[in-house]
Amino acid sequence: MARIMKENFKKIQKERNNVHIPARSTYTVFKTVDGKKYFQIDTFGTTERMNPEKISQSIQFDAEFATELIRIISDELLGCAFKP
Questions:
Q1: Torsional sign, CA 29, 4, 15, 57
Q2: Residue 47 has what pLDDT?
Q3: Which of 24, 38, 45, 76 has the fewest CB atoms found within 10 Å of its own CB?
């Protein structure tokens, strides 16, 4: 599991990139006891794996990072600025 925070999320340049095969994924939204809301994405093993129903990765982020992620995606993929 990993919780992504704005200060730990950096863009890098890679020499080799490839598109991964699709995998099943789900999301959930939950609140902690102190009322902070989180968004969690779980990805599951592909059908070639021994246990395809087991969660492979979980990624969590809060509203602050969600806003930053929407801004980055808007800029990088859509070529437009996001204004929250």
A1: negative
A2: 72
A3: 76
